[in-house]
Amino acid sequence: MRSGAKVAVVGGAFVLVAGGIGYGAYSVLGDTAGGGGGTRSASESSKVKTGPPSAEEIAQTAKGFFDAWAAGDAAGAALLTNNETGAQPVLSSYGEDAHIGKVRITPTPPVGTKVPYTVEATVAFGGKSKPLSYASELTVVRGLTTGKALVDWEPAVVHPQLTDGATLKTGESSTPAIEAVDRNGTVLTKEEYPSLGPVLDTLRQKYGEASGGSAGIETWIEPADASQPDVNLLTLSKGKPGKVQTTLDANAQAAAERAVKKYAQASVVAVKPSTGAIRAVANNPVTEFNVALQGKQAPGSTLKIMTAAMLLEKGLVTANGAAECPKDVLYQGRSFHNLKNFALPDGSTFTQSFARSCNTAFIKLIDDTKDDAALAKEARDVFGIGLDWQTGVVTTDGSVPEEVGGEAAAQYIGQGTVQMNALNMASITATAITGAFRQPVIVPQSLDDRKLARASRSLPASVTQQLRTMMRATAAWGTGAKAMASVGGDKGAKTGSAEVDGQATSNSWFTGFSDDLAAAAVVQTGGHGGDAAGPVVAEVLRAGG
């Protein structure tokens, strides 16, 4: 990580240039922090006020805080917050460590107790300077003991991406910038592919020094957690970026970015089954926590791919053999039913139950496995779930804990204690259709000779063949048919709807393949898997890779 003093927020001598009751603009005319007693307002009344702050109090408190901040009076500004000890160091170091000066703060009228504002400033270091602008907001609350209206302190008051323990800095970067390229040499930037922002930051942290580049001058946020990458806010001088090869595909990535933007919360990952190469990763919204790679959620019926593999391996079913699918079933005191309580007629095959996503057909076979840990073993030994994946970036590698009774039954249909993300489900699909787990990677293993995770065994060829048959049926005439209609090639799919406590609508899951590309997606509160997540997967598969 970079060295240097911790950061925070104010820099330079600020001067109020527009008045009003706190909704004007404030300017910094110098670059040296300190001095200048800021305006403070406080009730002289001995009676402690209660209740929400009034509109006048909100306006006066915000004005006082902005006056003091603009004047470089960190102590005065901190006094107007409900955490003076926490606020003052951050406010003091804005100019000293982040080298931010000539600051102009423009508030807008409050929305309730929140006061939004924009900051326009200049960052200057080492003879280089560039403008910096961003928007943030503060909230005015009533002090618990004093009854005074105070700014509810949090580091985001200074910068919206600043969190507790993180520091804002400007200086020469200790890690050179990188130029990440896709498998064909196309340059990948966070401006063109926003979802890759966290990925590119991590790749820089891990591989920047070995990439052959030279350091530049930057403003960045250094997270409190040293394992997390720095967040670059501004580049004053680029230096020489080093090249880092990735396994991504620009066309697939562009399709993934477009697809997830159609929903408020969505994630998708695509992998190449024959190699494990990650071709696309996308999230909406984009956050430092990469949901597609690090999320932990029940994947619903998409997990039936794994459950089916286990049942096929044990000889309890065959793709074309009969399988009962009643509308509901009771297992150890816990009732399970199919969507809208549908049932399949006697003589229906296991492929029909899989393609129609019949829950009861799977749960009825639990006792026949004679092993409560059967699914957990299948997950680990065949599909590589829960092993330490070394993809090149931070990932969560799935979890299927050993369970008994009703919890074990819930796992069979991807509910209960099963935890997956889009990467995990794309990998499960890839393993199912090739028969062998190949740990996903986003940079070639040859880049750093890291040790990849390996499953202890592969699927028998007959099981792989039957899994492909059942997934093809799902894409041809089952629950995934509508979503996969526009996808060409040898294709298959599995839908899922994961019920989550407290949600009126289930999460939508979908996983599928087309030739040598597999993709999986989740759309929060998207409902049926084929309706929301299905089109996301289809768009990525159509792009190829």
Q: Describe it for me?
A:
By secondary structure, the chain is α+β, with helices and mostly antiparallel strands. About 25% of the residues lie in helices and about 20% in strands. It is built from 16 helices and 18 strands. The protein has helices at about 55-70, 75-80, 85-95, 195-205, 250-260, 290-295, 305-315, 350-355, 360-365, 365-370, 375-380, 405-410, 420-435, 460-475, 480-485, 535-545, and strands at about 15, 25-30, 100-105, 115-125, 130-140, 150, 165-170, 180, 215-220, 230-235, 240-245, 265-270, 280-285, 330, 335, 490-500, 505-515, 515-525. The chain has a six-stranded antiparallel β-sheet with strand order 1-2-3-4-5-6. The chain has a five-stranded antiparallel β-sheet with strand order 13-12-18-17-16, sandwiched between helices. A three-stranded antiparallel β-sheet has the order 7-9-10. A hairpin with a 2-residue loop joins strand 14 and strand 15. Helix 5 packs antiparallel against helix 16. The longest helix is centred in the N-terminal third of the chain and has 16 residues, at about 55-70. The relative contact order is 0.10. Mean pLDDT is about 90; it is low at about 1-25 and about 25-45.
Q: What's the gyration radius in Å?
A: 28 Å
Q: Count up the helices.
A: 16
Terminal residue distance: 34 Å
Helix content range: 25-40%
Uncertain runs are 1-24, 26-45
Mean pLDDT: 89
Shape: globular
Structural class: alpha+beta
